[in-house]
Amino acid sequence: MGEPDTANRAEGLLEQIADTALDDDYYVVRSGPGAQKRQFNTVLTGVVMAVFALLVAVAAIQTRSDRPATERERATLIDDVDARKETLADREATAVRLRAEVNALQGQVDSFDPAYQELRLVAADVGATGPGVTVRVTPNPNDDIDGQIRDQDLRVLVNGLWYAGAEAVSINGNRIGTLSAIRFAESVIKVNYRGIAPPYVVEAIGDEDTMAERFEENPAGRYWVKRQQDAGVGFDVSRSSELRVGVVPKPRLTIRHATAIKGEE
C-alpha cells in the first residue's frame, strides 16, 4: 500500500488530466456549424485557385498564339520604314538633279540673254563692279546724342544716292536691294537684319562725276550738310574709278505676295 499505490494514483491522475484538457464546449463548437463553414471555405479556396490557374493557362496560350501576328506586324512596319527611306532618298536625288539642271539652264540664259543679266543686276542678285563714289560717315567724336548716326540718316543717304543715279549700293559690305531694310534694333543699326557699326562706309556704283554733283544738289545732300553743321557728324565723299559690291542675301530677293500682271511683261 505504500509506494506502488501512490505511483498508480499519480498515473491515473495524469491520464484524467490528459483526457479532460479541453473543455467540453470546444468539442461542441468544433463539431457544430462552424465546422461546416470551414469545410465550405476550404472548398471555395480550392475553386478560386483552380479558376486562377485556368486563367493563367489561357493567357499563356493566347500570348503564344498572338506572337506570330505581332512579329508579322513588326516586320511589316520595318519594311514600310525602309520603303519610305528609299522614297525619300530618291526624291532627294531628284531634287539635286533638278537643281543642277536649273543652274545649267541659268548659266545658258546668262550667256546669251543680256536683258536677264541686267534684271539680276538691278535686283542685286549678282555682284557688281564699276566706278562710283564712297561716302564715309562717322558720329560726332564728343559722343553726344545729336551727334550719333541713326538709321534714318543712312536711309536718307542711300535714297539720295539712288536719286543721284546710283546703280548699285552697299553699306559696310551689305548690298542694298529692293527688299532691303535699314533699321535700328537691339541698340544697333541693321542692314538686311545684320548689325553694322561705325564708321559707316556707303559705296555707290554709277557715274562718279555726275552722281557726286547730283547728290549735293538734291534734298539728301542738303540734309547731310545740315547734319554736319548742327551735330558735327563726319561726312566725307570720295570718287573711285572701280568699286565692287556683293550680292543681296537670298531672303531679301524672295517675293512672297506680289505677282506679275499678265500682258505687261
3D structure, described in words:
- There is one protein chain.
- The chain is α+β, with helices and mostly antiparallel strands.
- The chain has two domains: 112 residues; 124 residues, Alpha-Beta Plaits, CATH 3.30.70.1880.
- The strands form two sheets. It has a five-stranded antiparallel sheet. It has a three-stranded antiparallel sheet with strand order 4-5-6, with helices on one face.
- It is elongated.
Main sheet strand line-up = 3-2-7-1-8
Total of domains: 2
Average pLDDT level: 82
Number of helices: 7
Q: CATH top level of the largest domain?
A: Alpha Beta
Using DSSP, what is the number of strands?
Answer: 8
Strand content: 15-25%
Would you tell me the structural class of the helices and strands?
alpha+beta
- Poorly predicted spans: none
What is the N-to-C order of secondary-structure elements (H for helix, E for strand)?
A: HHHHEHEEEEEEHHE
Main sheet characteristics: 5 strands, antiparallel
| CATH fold description of the largest domain | Alpha-Beta Plaits
InterPro entries: DUF881
Organism: Aeromicrobium yanjiei
Protein name: DUF881 domain-containing protein
GO cellular component, one term: plasma membrane
Question: What can be said about this structure in brief?
Answer:
With 265 residues, this protein is α+β, with helices and mostly antiparallel strands.
Offer a few descriptive terms.
265 residues; five-stranded antiparallel beta sheet; three-stranded antiparallel beta sheet; elongated; single chain; alpha+beta; Alpha-Beta Plaits; 17% strand
